[in-house]
C-alpha cells in the first residue's frame, strides 16, 4: 500500500518532491565543471544515489520506472511565426515518448513518488529531432549546480528512519530563499490520479528562433485535455498509474495541448527556480496525441537518451547552468545502464 503525497506532513512532502528532483543534480554540476573535486565524479555521485535507492542494473538512474508510448503531434501553426522548427508547421509529427515516476528504484509503487515525468522525441520530415524531458513541477528549488548538490546532501535519508531528516531539510530551505516558489508549489500540490490528467513542464527556458533570426525565450507545458481528478487515498495497486494509462488508451487516444509561455524583457530566462508572472502571453502551439502504450520498459523509447539539448534548428538552449550540464549527466547515466544491460544479456 502506498501513501499519497497529501497524506504526508509538509516537511516530508517537500523532501519527497525535492529529493527526486535533485537526484542527478551533483552529476550535472561535475559534468559541467562547476564542482572540481575528484570525489564528485559522475561515477561517484551515481554510486551514491544507488547506495541510497538500491542498485538496479540496466535501468535509468533517475525516472527508472516507466513505460513507452507513441503517437503524434498536430501543429496548429500558431507558433510558426516564432520558430522555424518544422515541428511547428508540419501538420502531423510522429512522437515516441515515455511516462515515468521520479526516483532510481524501478520497483517503487506508482503513487509512492509525487514527481512524474513525460519525455518525448518528435521527428519531423526534414530529418530534425526534438527531444524534451518534462516534469510535474513548474520550477526547481534552486538555481545553481552547487545548491543542487547541497540539496542532495540535505535530503540524504536518515539511516534510522529511511527518510530525509525534516530539520535538516528545513534548514536547507531556510538557507535558500530562492526556493520560495518551489515550496509554495509543493505546499499546494495535489497529485492527479492519472498520467492522463497530469500536466508537464519544461522548467528550463529555451529560445525559439524564427526565419528572420529573431529570438523569443519560452518555457513550455503540456496541458491535459483529460479533466483533473485528485489521487484518492491509499492505493493498493503498485502499478496503479501504468494500469490506468493502459485502460484509458484501450478506450481511445489521450491529448495534451502544447502551451508556450513567452518571456518578457527582464524575466529570468537562465534561472529555473524563478517563475514568470502569470500574465505573460501564451501561445497554444498544437496538440500531442498519445494513442499507443507498450508493456513496461519495452518499446521504442527503451533505448532513447532523452537529452534535452537534442534540439532542431529553430529551438536553442538558454544559458541556464543547470540545462547546460544535463547533456553530460544524461550521457553518463545512459552509458552506465547500457553497459549493465549488455552484461545482463538483456536491456530492461
UniProtKB/TrEMBL annotation:
The keyword Metal-binding applies. Its cofactor is heme. Keywords: Heme, Iron, Metal-binding, Oxidoreductase, Peroxidase. GO terms for biological process: hydrogen peroxide catabolic process; response to hydrogen peroxide. GO terms for cellular component: cytoplasm. It is an enzyme of class 1 (oxidoreductase). PROSITE patterns: CATALASE_3. InterPro entries: Catalase, Catalase_core, Catalase_sf, Catalase_SrpA-type_pred. Pfam families: Catalase (PF00199). Residues 23-348 form the Catalase core domain. SMART domains: Catalase (SM01060). GO terms for molecular function: catalase activity; heme binding; metal ion binding. CDD domains: srpA_like. It comes from the Bacteria. Has an organic peroxide-dependent peroxidase activity. Belongs to the catalase family. PANTHER family: CATALASE. This is Catalase-related peroxidase.
Amino acid at each position: 500500500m502506498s501513501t499519497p503525497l497529501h497524506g504526508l506532513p509538509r516537511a516530508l512532502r517537500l523532501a519527497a518532491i525535492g529529493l527526486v528532483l535533485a537526484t542527478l543534480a551533483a552529476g550535472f554540476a561535475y559534468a559541467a565543471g562547476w564542482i572540481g573535486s575528484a570525489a564528485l565524479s559522475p561515477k561517484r555521485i551515481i554510486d551514491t544515489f544507488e547506495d541510497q535507492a538500491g542498485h538496479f542494473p540496466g535501468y535509468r538512474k533517475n525516472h527508472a520506472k516507466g513505460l513507452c508510448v507513441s503517437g503524434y503531434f498536430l501543429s496548429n501553426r500558431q507558433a510558426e511565426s516564432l520558430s522555424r522548427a518544422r515541428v511547428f508547421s508540419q501538420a502531423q509529427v510522429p512522437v515516441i515518448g515515455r511516462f515515468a515516476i521520479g526516483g532510481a528504484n524501478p520497483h517503487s509503487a506508482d503513487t509512492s513518488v509525487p514527481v512524474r515525468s513525460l519525455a518525448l522525441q518528435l521527428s519531423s520530415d526534414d530529418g530534425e529531432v526534438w527531444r524534451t524531458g518534462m516534469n510535474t513541477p513548474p520550477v526547481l528549488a534552486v538555481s545553481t549546480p552547487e545548491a543542487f548538490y547541497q540539496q542532495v546532501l540535505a535530503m540524504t535519508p536518515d539511516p534510522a528512519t529511511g527518510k530525509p531528516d525534516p530539520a535538516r531539510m528545513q534548514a536547507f530551505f531556510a538557507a535558500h530563499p530562492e526556493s520560495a516558489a518551489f515550496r509554495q508549489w509543493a505546499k499546494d500540490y495535489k497529485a492527479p490520479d492519472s498520467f492522463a490528467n497530469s500536466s508537464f513542464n519544461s522548467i528550463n527556458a529555451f529560445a525559439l528562433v524564427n526565419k528572420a533570426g529573431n529570438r523569443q525565450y519560452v518555457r513550455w507545458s503540456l496541458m491535459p485535455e483529460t479533466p483533473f481528478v485528485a489521487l484518492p487515498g491509499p492505493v493498493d495497486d503498485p502499478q496503479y498509474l501504468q494500469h490506468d494509462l493502459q485502460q484509458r488508451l484501450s478506450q481511445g487516444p489521450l491529448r495534451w495541448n502544447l502551451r508556450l509561455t513567452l518571456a518578457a524583457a527582464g524575466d529570468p530566462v537562465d534561472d529555473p527556480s524563478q517563475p514568470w508572472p502569470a500574465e505573460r502571453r501564451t501561445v497554444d502551439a498544437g496538440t500531442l496525441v498519445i494513442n499507443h502504450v507498450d508493456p513496461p520498459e519495452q518499446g521504442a523509447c527503451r533505448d532513447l537518451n532523452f537529452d534535452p539539448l537534442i534540439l532542431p534548428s529553430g529551438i536553442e538552449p538558454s544559458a541556464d547552468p543547470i540545462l547546460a550540464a544535463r547533456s553530460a549527466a544524461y550521457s553518463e547515466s545512459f552509458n552506465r545502464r547500457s553497459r549493465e544491460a549488455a552484461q545482463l544479456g538483456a536491456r530492461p
